[in-house]
Amino acid sequence: MKIKFGTGGWRAIIGDGFIRSNVEKVADALAQIILEEGCEDEGVVLGFDRRFLSEEAAIWAACTLAANGVICELIDRETPTPVIMFQVEKQARPYGMAITASHNPATYNGIKLFQAGGRDAELSFTNKVESIIEAREGEEIPTMDFEEAKAKSLIKLINPMNAYLDNILAAVDSRAIRERGLKVAFDPMFGVGKTPMLTLLYTLRCEVDIIHAQRDTLFGGRLPAPTNHTLVSLKNHVREGEFDLGLATDGDADRLGVIDEKGNFLHFNKVLVLL
Q1: Could you tell me if residue 53 is left (phi over 0), alpha (psi between -120 and 50 degrees) or otherwise beta?
Q2: How far is it, in rounded angstroms, from Cα 153 to Cα 155?
Q3: What pTM value is reported for the model?
Q4: 3-state secondary structure of 67
Q5: Do 72 and 43 contact (CB within 8 A), yes or no?
Q6: Which is it for strands 108-115 and 10-13: parallel, antiparallel or unpaired?
Q7: Cβ neighbours of residue 64 under 8 Å, at least 6 residues apart?
Q8: CB 53 within 8 A of CB 109
Q9: Which H or E run contains 119?
Q10: Cα(18)–Cα(112) distance, integer angstroms
């Protein structure tokens, strides 16, 4: 199967295109670019979501990067994609990688790549990754033992969550939110948004009720995307519980859904206007 990146990264069906050898090919191609640029000591920030095989795939990628002599900063728990992007920017790392298929069906997994500044990889960059994969087809992809890589400090476990949350809190009017005493219903859609969103809301003294919080690699049989159609349960929950606000995040928590106090879904364009 040819590995092809789209605007949201590379995605493939688990067990078909999304297999260990292909994950290692993407990591190896990224490593070749890093070695060419001479920034292997600056490190790649790597994180993963709650999908089936995401954590395992993150380890496969980390071990391939390490085998190429590239330092990998692996976030030590399931992580929202924005946290990875934030860490790339904050620590001035040249690249980042997320193991996720975002809001796609549960049968998919994939990889997102990020460049300096924490921005999504440009088309010219992903084209280069694809070209390297194709050129190295048939060659043995290097890898090494995970524990050995950690012992040699080629894989470093990190947790940037506190810095990420502090950055958000510094950008909002905490006092105004605390004084409002908001009653909020939250739906992480079985994804990775649970811990950061609850931490933020509790810190802001909101009363919070949460649905669909447990890990479910099938996402309850629905798309983990916060749309008018998929947030019916949250809309009903807001109306029945007389909440001030309903919030939802997608599978890797880089998309937001907003429900008003009457249980109406606010289109993304309206949210942007409000902001």
Answers
A1: left
A2: 5
A3: 0.94
A4: helix
A5: yes
A6: antiparallel
A7: 23, 24, 27, 28, 31, 141, 142, 143
A8: yes
A9: strand 119-120
A10: 13
Distance CA 68, CA 63 (A): 9
How high is the pLDDT of residue 268?
87
At residue 8, the pLDDT reads: 78
Number of H helices, E strands in the chain: 10, 12
Given the residues 54, 102, 131, 233, select the one marked as catalytic.
Answer: 102
Alpha helices (H) in the chain, listed in sequence order:
20-37, 54-67, 81-90, 123-135, 146-151, 161-169, 174-180, 194-203, 232-241, 268-274
Q: How many C-beta atoms surround the C-beta of residue 55 within 10 A? A: 15
Q: What is the pLDDT of residue 73?
A: 98
pLDDT of residue 127: 96
- Does residue 2 contact residue 105 with C-beta atoms inside 8 Å? no
Structure-token pair, residue 228: 């008018």
Burial-class residue 89 by CB neighbours within 10 Å (0-12, 13-18, 19+).
middle
- The helix-helix angle for 161-169 and 194-203 (nearest 10°) equals 40
- Taking alpha carbons only, the member of 227, 213, 225 closest to residue 254 is 225
The CA distance from 47 to 205, in Å, is: 29
Contact by Cβ (8 Å): 255, 82 = no
pLDDT score, position 1 = 72
Give 10-residue mean pLDDT values along the chain (275 residues).
Answer: 88 97 98 97 96 98 98 97 98 97 95 97 96 95 98 98 97 96 97 96 98 95 94 97 97 96 94 89
21 is catalytic: no
Beta strand ranges found along 68-107 (DSSP E): 72-75, 95-99
Query: Residue 201 to residues 123, 169, 229, 253, 263: CA-CA distances in angstroms?
Result: 36, 10, 25, 15, 19
Predicted confidence at residue 178, as pLDDT, reads 96
Q: Is 231 in contact with 249 (CB distance < 8 Å)?
A: no
